[in-house]
Amino acid sequence: MPRRSKWMHLVAGVVAGVTLGVFLKLCLRTSSRTSIEACPEAAKLYVAPDPLEIIGLKSDETIYNSNRTLVFVGVMTAEQYLTTRARAVFETWAQDLPGRIAFFSSEVSRAPGLPLIPLRNVDDSYPPQKKSFLMLLYMYEHYGDRFEWFMRADDDVYVRGDKLGEFLRSVDSRKPQFIGQAGRGTNSERDALALDYNENFCMGGPGVLISRETLRRVAPHVKYCLKHLYTTHEDVELGRCVAKFAGVSCTWSYDVS
């Protein structure tokens, strides 16, 4: 066997041995009685399912040939609420959506039976700026061309699917749209929120609607926005990011009436 081939086999063997050793060190622990304990469930290797499979979307379904692609709803939740709030949402109003839904939680979250997306390098700390922005990035990267509208929702909100569908079909998703309950904070808060006199934001509690064009403009810049936060208010910072990169603010009610 040539010398070079021997060295290649030797290097490959060393790499494999080191990898196996690290895995065994992390996933096997020796107790005080020298018995070996298996690593905890959360530490086991996790292979994320296909993004389309998570939400039950077929690969050939598009906004042009399906009546279940009007809106994608991303529900921000936490591990402690997966069996309560998230489960209640999924078993009630989620069934009547003119689209699909998924729950976004921390990296270690698991919930069999729910369309759950554990976001990498995200925990359940509050305020959830990182969770919110990376949820939008995930939406864009995996579903950006498959839905007309995207909704950011909390796990304690209730949505009327029929009313939502009726409204969204009346608005052009090809244009930058940022729709929700507009707010500017109180007079005493305005300076702390770093808002100009003509700026506002969509308050997160009631839910926020984002057109596919707005998502297309904003999503590539979410990491920039995360690095340039002015406040700890997730909805304010989302509004600031949308205004900067999509050029629109939260729509006042009289603009869509």
TrEMBL record:
InterPro entries: CS_glycosyltransferase, Fringe-like_glycosylTrfase, Nucleotide-diphossugar_trans. It is found in: Membrane. Signal peptide: none annotated. The keyword Cell division does not apply. It is a single-pass type II membrane protein. Its main location: membrane. GO terms for molecular function: glucuronosyl-N-acetylgalactosaminyl-proteoglycan 4-beta-N-acetylgalactosaminyltransferase activity. The keyword Endoplasmic reticulum does not apply. GO terms for cellular component: membrane. Residues 71-251 form the Fringe-like glycosyltransferase domain. Keywords: Glycosyltransferase, Membrane, Signal-anchor, Transferase, Transmembrane, Transmembrane helix. This is Fringe-like glycosyltransferase domain-containing protein. The lineage of its organism: Eukaryota, Metazoa, Ecdysozoa, Arthropoda, Hexapoda.
